[in-house]
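Encode chain A's predicted structure.
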Amino acid sequence: MPKEHTKLEMPTDGERLIQDVLAELGWSADPKTVAEGVRRLDIGLPLEDEFSVVCAWLGKCQLLHKLDQQQIPITSRQEFQVPDLLARFSSQTNTSPVLIEVKSKRNKLLSFKPDYLSRLQNYADLMGMPLLIAWKFHSIWSLFEARHMKKSATNFNITLETAMRENLLGVMAGDVAYKIGTGVGVHLRFRKDKIIETKATEDGHEEQWMMTIDGVAFTDREGKRRIDVDGEIQSLITAWDLEQKEDHTDSHVQLSFVAGDNGIQFAHTALVQLLNWESSHDNRPHWRGLLRKEQITKNVVSFSAALDAAYSQKFVSHIFHMRPHTMPDFLPTEAKREEF
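Encoded structure for chain A:
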């Protein structure tokens, strides 16, 4: 049988990816090994890419880029470790950019070996920049100063509770927590046009109908029926975890998706929900590809503006602006005066 060939497209920054792989493997590396390395880099490094997309989408990121971690002389690696990212946010005024090391761990304790943390801090001190740690725990991101990691018997550790307590993602990058109001929902009304089939079941019978949607409406948190809902607000509602309800009459079926009493969501976790809702497939977001897009989500240009509009129009019931327990020295004096 003839072999099937898959057409591979060169990534936009393919030349740099090849250069990075060859720097690690050497010019004499097997072509298949090089190709696999390029593929891994393009769909890999997903953690740094995901955090970068999150920061860009939250709205306060002025500049963020990865740092080249090929350093010389080789002996410098004993003293210095280049962090993953350099970033500057609009929430900073007259201060240097920050350095960010990105980690993912599903355990509620993040741990660094002393020499590893020391090398990261040495580099930050050399550059005169604050050192921050971005930690992904399941789907939740936190961003905190490295100084909050405390020495235990051997390693420097931080608990998830402390990381969230000292989380800078809100005050620096613009993250918020919010809640869709109880009772907010979308309601679809289907007109029964023609019965196609009836089947007997143990509980009675099952019917299949040819139907036409003849009504679409929303309800706000006060239970008022609304049809003039902006597209961005519709996206916020449909990306929420809604409860499905069905009502049947002789002529219609009404399918409702309604927000319950429980639940709260961070803006950065809503991004994944929106991407999944807009996607035509069930694959996970290709974060590296999203880095190349000017507008990350198709239907929401500015999440903060959409959230404010949804609150004023009574679809969102709560917006929580999160602040760290300890305000960093590198943030503006005005922010420190508001600390609580």
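DSSP finds eleven helices and 16 strands in the chain.
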